[in-house]
Amino acid sequence: MLFEEKPQISESEITAAMDFAVAQTRRCLPEFTEKFKKAYSEHDFYQPTENVDWTTGFWTGQIWLSYEETGKECFKRAGEIQIESFLNRIENKIEVDHHDMGFLYSPSCVAGYKLTGNENGKKAAILAADQLIRRFHPVGEFIQAWGPMDAPENYRLIIDCLLNLPLLYWASEETGDAKYRDIAEKHIHTAVANVIREDHSTWHTFFFDMETGAPDHGATCQGYRDGSAWARGQAWGIYGMALAYRYTGREEYIQKFRDVTAFFLEHLPADLVPFWDLEFTDGDDEPRDSSSAAIAACGMLEMARYLGEEEAKEYRALAGRLVKALYDFYAVRDETQSNGLVLHSTYSNHSPYNTCNHYGVDECNIWGDYFYMEALMRLKKDWNPYW
Ligand code: GLY
Q: Residue whose CA is closest, atom 2 of ligand 1?
């Protein structure tokens, strides 16, 4: 069936999906208010964790989306308790020596501040922005993703970081200090110039020369092999380009968005939910990464806000088809099946050509749940993003 003939999610389905997501979030509050959901489920059920991984902000984001949808105090109280945990984490520097400050602090603390004026959310998010800009390399003009700052094996950026940058733009707006925005802009420029290949697929990670800062080489970490396109990396690229355009206003990023989106869409299997690497398609015995479909849908819905009417309509329709596919074939339908929202996601899959360990494969992943709910919210209304 041609892509255009695939059904879009209907208004009543959006409402039903959102109602279920909110009810599922509500049911999880007793177990997951003082604690957080782990990055991935085990046999489709999340276990509790302390606030230590790069992923905990997504669960808090799910709570804030539920608050925004319902106005219910139970969600507000839970979100406030989690903001205190994020403030403690950044004040005491607990597991923050990496670049994922935006993934952690935008959907939790920035969201809570935007929705309720929570001052500790603002304080924590500005401290997180300070932490993030410490990872900027002025020579190569990029934010280093992982590991100690002086180790050659870590002198690289990763495509995912595009989602960490809205935190810096927000920090400049709130403080009036342009330093956060300037660093974000430089990183975007370096990332876009290097991670998007000629065929519009993307590198997951890209290394630079430590002395000159010159681009060196691309490499995968979580993808199948170096030259393939890790599905989630491509999806981070789609959402990342939409955000890059929103914050910089650079026209050339619109075309980059179109290009990386087209590559993603051209490599989807028949049911529109990608395998974990876009190298694979129907007939391959490989796991899916449903979270990539949700992230890509959010990116298209974000970009649609800035495009002309006709093109915006096209991207909204494409997003509506991806979300319909998730709703029909991947979404959790009752709470005995899972305490998450979307099944069949892949966090880290081992291949003969990567160094990844095998975990969170064919499970719920907490960002997959969050972005599915964000996509539903974006389809329901003109949403003011947490990013
Ligand atoms: N940012 C890490 C991941 O997408 O798995």
A: 160
Indicate which residue of 100, 277, 362, 369 is catalytic: 100
Q: What pLDDT is attached to residue 48?
A: 98
Q: Which CATH code, of 1.50.10.10, 1.10.10.10, 3.60.21.10, 1.10.3720.10, is assigned to 11-380?
A: 1.50.10.10
Tokens of 203: 């590198």
Query: Is any ligand 1 atom within 6 A of the Cβ of residue 160?
Result: yes
The torsion region of residue 384 among left (phi > 0), alpha (psi -120 to 50) and beta comes to: beta
Tens digits of residue pLDDT in 238-277? 999 999 999 999 999 999 999 999 999 999 999 999 999 9
d(CA 172, CA 140): 22
User: Residue 12 Cα, ligand 1 centroid: separation in angstroms?
Assistant: 32
Distance CA 169, CA 221 (A): 28
Listed in sequence order, the DSSP H helices in the chain are: 11-28, 56-70, 73-91, 101-105, 111-116, 119-133, 166-175, 179-195, 231-248, 252-266, 290-304, 309-329, 366-380
pLDDT for the residue 151: 87
Query: What's the pLDDT score for residue 1?
Result: 57
Which of 222, 291, 364, when mutated, tests ligand 1's pocket best, judged by the most ligand atoms within 8 Å of its CB? 222
Active-site residue 160, yes or no?
Answer: yes
Q: Where are the domains of the chain?
A: 11-380
Tokens for 334, please give them: 């009752």
Residue 222 CA, ligand 1 centroid: distance in Å: 8
Is residue 199 flagged as an active site residue?
Answer: no
Which residue ranges of the chain lie beneath pLDDT 70? 1-2
Is 154 in contact with 144 (CB distance < 8 Å)?
A: yes
pTM reported for the whole predicted model: 0.98
Per DSSP bridges, beta strands 48-49 and 36-37 are antiparallel
Q: What's the CA-to-centroid distance between 160 and ligand 1, angstroms?
A: 6
